[in-house]
Amino acid sequence: MGVFNRLRSFYEARIAPTVASFLSRISPDPNIYTLASPVAAAAALPAWLYISPVASLLLIALSLLLDAVDGAVARFTGRVSPLGSFLDSSLDRISDSLYHATLYIAGVHPLIVIAMLSGGLIVPYLRAKGESLGLEVRGRGLMERGERSIAILAILAISIYNLQTALALASAAAVLVWITVIQRMVYIAGELRR
Fold this sequence. Notes:
With 194 residues, this protein is mainly alpha-helical. It has helices at 3-26, 30-51, 53-77, 82-105, 110-132, 145-161, 163-193.
């Protein structure tokens, strides 16, 4: 189990119930948090251009936080639903696309952004496909959504001060995302051959 998966387990067991208890008093509807996540991600684009890169980073961090709490609120309030699951997965892809658009606005080369985004869209597809075939795919590969999100935040933060370093990190992230695609494809194909 990777470091991020251990952190996720700790979050889900220790932090999420407390956060969910608090947030459920603000709104017990977890879909509110799900819907707010891409709104914050979309606001990050003009924020980078017209307010400040730091404001944009804060909006992306807020978007990621909202995405992390929607499921916790759903479980805490007993409002887990197929609709919520569908909205979460679908809107995550929209948010991911908006994070990558912010990378482009920050000056990351378009081909690097395309490589990161396309691989980043294939990774969750492979998980969904594998799980529809009865396989447990979560935790397989180097760059799951959490790792990709942290990488994007780091690349954006570094791009404010040193674009060349940010480009190098974005290139490395793109390679790691595609390694994750290959890891998942190999795992799923291997399991299906059994």
